């Protein structure tokens, strides 16, 4: 007797629409991809598996010279540089909206796929506007 768990597809840590938008450097397509799909986020501390409310602790980059804070987001976990913490989370558009709404005044810029293949950046204000469009 085949169990349903065996038939379940493994969770994919990527957003193909976001990767396509980054490839074309199209801000409208990027906004659409963020509103309708997940985003891969580097985690300093992964969430607890038995607590669905625990998303983990998001890793951000703080420039040691200026103190500026950057949020790094990825279209695919494979695009995350190995130098970053190893954990990743797959976050929803609602999560990204809430995170930027809470921490947007501390974040200077948001980088997408910072190490490539098609890096792009935006301000938290622009991303919030895109998410709420």
Can you give a write-up of this model?
- With 133 residues, this protein is an alpha+beta fold.
- It has a single domain, classed as Uncharacterised protein PF11572, DUF3234 (Trna Endonuclease, Chain: A, domain 1, 3-Layer(aba) Sandwich), CATH 3.40.1350.90.
- The chain has helices at 4-7, 16-24, 27-36, 93-103, 124-131; strands at residues 39-45, 57-58, 60-62, 69-73, 87-91, 107-112, 120-122.
- It has a four-stranded mixed beta sheet with strand order 3-4-6-7.
- A hairpin with a 7-residue loop joins strand 6 (107-112) and strand 7.
- Helix 2 packs antiparallel against helix 3 and helix 4 (93-103) runs antiparallel to helix 5.
- The chain is globular and about 35 Å long.
- The model has no long low-confidence stretch (mean pLDDT 89).
- This is SseB protein N-terminal domain-containing protein.
- It comes from Microbacterium marinum.
Concise account of the structure shown:
The longest helix is centred in the last third of the chain and has 11 residues, at 93-103. The protein is globular.
Radius of gyration: 15 Å
The whole-number mean of residue pLDDT values reads 89
Proportion in β-strands: 15-25%
The biggest beta sheet reads: 4 strands, mixed
Strand-pairing-aware structural class = alpha+beta
CATH third-tier fold name: Trna Endonuclease, Chain: A, domain 1
Q: H/E element string?
A: HHHEEEEEHEEH
Number of strands: 7
User: Into how many domains do the coordinates divide?
Assistant: 1
DSSP helix fraction: 25-40%
**Please, how many helices?**
5
The CATH architecture classification is: 3-Layer(aba) Sandwich
Organism: Microbacterium marinum
Protein name: SseB protein N-terminal domain-containing protein
């Amino acid at each position: 007797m085949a169990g349903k768990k065996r038939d379940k597809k493994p969770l994919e840590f990527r957003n193909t629409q976001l990767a396509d938008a980054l490839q074309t450097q199209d801000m409208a397509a990027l906004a659409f991809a963020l509103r309708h799909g997940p985003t891969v986020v580097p985690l300093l501390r992964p969430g607890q598996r038995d607590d669905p409310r625990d998303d983990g602790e998001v890793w951000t980059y703080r420039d040691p010279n200026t103190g500026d804070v950057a949020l790094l987001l990825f279209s695919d976990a494979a695009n995350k540089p190995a130098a970053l913490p190893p954990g990743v989370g797959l976050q929803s558009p609602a999560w990204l909206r809430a995170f930027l709404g809470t921490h947007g005044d501390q974040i200077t810029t948001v980088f997408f796929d910072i190490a490539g293949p098609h890096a792009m950046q935006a301000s938290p204000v622009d991303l919030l506007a895109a998410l709420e469009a």
